[in-house]
From TrEMBL:
Primary role: Catalyzes the phosphorylation of the beta-carboxyl group of aspartic acid with ATP to yield 4-phospho-L-aspartate, which is involved in the branched biosynthetic pathway leading to the biosynthesis of amino acids threonine, isoleucine and methionine.
Pathway, per record: Amino-acid biosynthesis; L-methionine biosynthesis via de novo pathway; L-homoserine from L-aspartate: step 1/3; Amino-acid biosynthesis; L-threonine biosynthesis; L-threonine from L-aspartate: step 1/5; Amino-acid biosynthesis; L-lysine biosynthesis via DAP pathway; (S)-tetrahydrodipicolinate from L-aspartate: step 1/4
E.C. number: 2.7.2.4
MF (Gene Ontology): aspartate kinase activity; ATP binding
Higher taxonomy: Bacteria, Bacillati, Bacillota, Bacilli, Bacillales
Any single Gene Ontology cellular-component annotation: cytosol
Name the UniProt record assigns to this protein: Aspartokinase
Keywords: Amino-acid biosynthesis, ATP-binding, Diaminopimelate biosynthesis, Kinase, Lysine biosynthesis, Nucleotide-binding, Transferase
Source species: Bacillus gobiensis
Membership in a protein family: Belongs to the aspartokinase family.
Binding annotation for ATP: K5, F6, G7, G8, T219, D220
Top-rank lineage group of the source organism: Bacteria
């Protein structure tokens, strides 16, 4: 049994829905279909979710916004027209949306969440109706009825463990089950959404709960690329990678699959297959627990920018009990998350996303480090890019770091920092943002275009 998730671009028009139908009926094991809200039909189009957010905010602040509401209804109505569904379903969607917009505004986050989630909810109803119209047994399933319960954190909720047990019963429903992605219900029975692109997470939770054999995630690319395709032209596609490799590659360029969505599938050992709705016969990319390490040491190179580093040095830091904890406590006090912490005998560097901190926070953190921890030096460096060179096979290969740093030095890149944990699944290079692209190109050239020198 497979859980199949279709993203917004796969559901953006009636023409796309015909493809979805063909994919589902071509394999009877595709039983549970998780759907996003209608996405973009073309480059400058607006996703229904974004229209819903604007609409909710306008209602919160001004009280009404007929033009955005009309645009949303128009999106569903043009899909329904294309696939031959009657006006009745559009009237249902319209009255559902109007009653949500006129709903309780006491808690703005919950209000917005309920409206945001209606994008997937109404789309699931429409798609189930379309399948039935085509003679396929299909049931719309509401997440509350299925028992998908989540924490009370609007916009970034997490699944509650009991949900997995509840969801197993979905297997007993005859025919195809159409399930809206992106949200669950809190214990008080209110709609709460995952973070953006969270339908991937719903699919993974359902795959885990129903003990599916495979989680197929249909999107609009043939496969996951080995490097950011906006930097390297027509890069190699990855046919197979492990959960750990996918996780390490979660920086920019690899966002075809939500990083939180790996966890439920990984815990249940369910492979994930990323596939293309517009080219379903392409094998796509498989994410698995273990793979044959046949294709050289590196499976992919990810990059991202907008990072800064806080360099802290203190003589005899290595002998001071609790030093690291106290540093991290200061970051926690400012609500900051970090990405990496390379360290030396007398120093520690914390790399974090720089948009979390304004100038005042930076000054305050420096002061506290100096006053409370008596550090010798604090240095904050901005505009760093991180490049992750990822591959499980690095562990068994000698000289991968040497190859990477030689490639960077030949490209005249000044490496600001290197970090490799003992898991040896990835190597991180920090470089100045201005040298990010040339670094990625040089590393790609070294590991994917050259004949290996070992
Ligand atoms: N429609 C939601 C979004 O745009 C969730 C999703 O598509 O997965 O973020």
């Amino acid at each position: 049994m497979k859980v199949v998730k279709f993203g917004g671009s796969s559901l953006a028009s009636g023409h796309q829905l015909e493809k979805v139908l063909d994919i589902v009926v071509s394999d009877p094991s595709r039983k549970i279909v998780v759907v996003s809200a209608p996405g973009k039909r073309f480059g400058h189009d607006t996703k229904v979710t974004d229209l819903l957010i604007s609409c909710a905010k306008a209602y919160l602040h001004k009280g009404e916004t007929p033009d955005i509401l009309d645009k949303i209804i128009e999106r569903y109505s043009s899909i329904a027209n294309e696939i031959g569904l009657s006006e009745e379903i559009i009237q249902q969607i319209k009255s559902d949306l109007i009653s949500l917009l006129n709903g309780d505004k006491k808690n703005p986050d919950r209000y917005i969440d309920a409206i945001k989630a209606s994008g997937e909810d109404n789309n699931a109803k429409l798609i189930a109706a379309f399948f039935r119209h085509k003679g396929i047994e299909a049931t719309y399933m509401n997440p509350k009825d299925a028992g998908l319960f989540v924490t009370d954190e609007p916009g970034y909720t997490q699944v509650l463990p009991d949900s997995y047990t509840n969801l197993y019963q979905l297997r007993n429903i005859p025919g195809v089950v159409v399930f809206p992605g992106f949200f669950g219900y809190n214990e008080a029975g209110e709609v709460i959404t995952f973070s953006r692109s969270g339908s991937d997470i719903t699919g993974s939770i359902l795959a885990n709960g129903t003990k599916a054999d495979l989680y197929e995630n249909f999107t609009d690319v043939d496969a996951v690329f080995s490097v950011n395709p906006t930097i390297v032209d027509q890069p190699k596609e990855i046919t197979e990678l492990t959960y750990r490799e996918m996780r390490e590659l979660s920086y920019a360029g690899f966002n075809v699959f939500h990083d939180e969505a790996l966890i439920p599938a990984f815990r249940a050992g369910i492979p994930v297959n990323i596939k293309n709705t517009n080219n379903p016969s392409a094998p796509g990319t498989k994410i698995v627990s273990q793979r044959q390490l046949t294709n050289g040491p590196v499976v992919g190179i990810a990059n991202d920018n907008g990072f800064c580093s806080i360099y802290i040095s203190k003589y005899l830091m290595n002998k001071e009990i609790g030093f690291g904890r106290k540093v991290l406590q200061i970051l926690e006090d400012y609500g900051l998350t970090y990405e990496h912490i390379p360290s030396g005998i007398d120093d520690i560097t914390i790399i974090l996303k720089q948009d979390q901190m304004d100038e005042q926070t930076e000054i305050a953190i420096s002061e506290r480090l100096k006053n409370e921890l008596s550090v010798d030096e604090v240095l904050i460096e901005h505009n760093l890019a991180l490049i992750m060179v990822v591959g499980e096979a690095m562990r068994h290969n000698v000289g991968t770091t040497a190859r990477a740093s030689r490639a960077l030095s030949e490209a005249k890149v000044n490496i600001e920092m290197i970090n490799q944990g003992c898991s040896e699944v990835s190597m991180m290079f920090a470089v100045k943002e201005a040298q990010e692209k040339q670094s990625v190109k040089a590393l790609y050239e070294e590991f994917f275009s050259k004949v290996p020198a070992y």
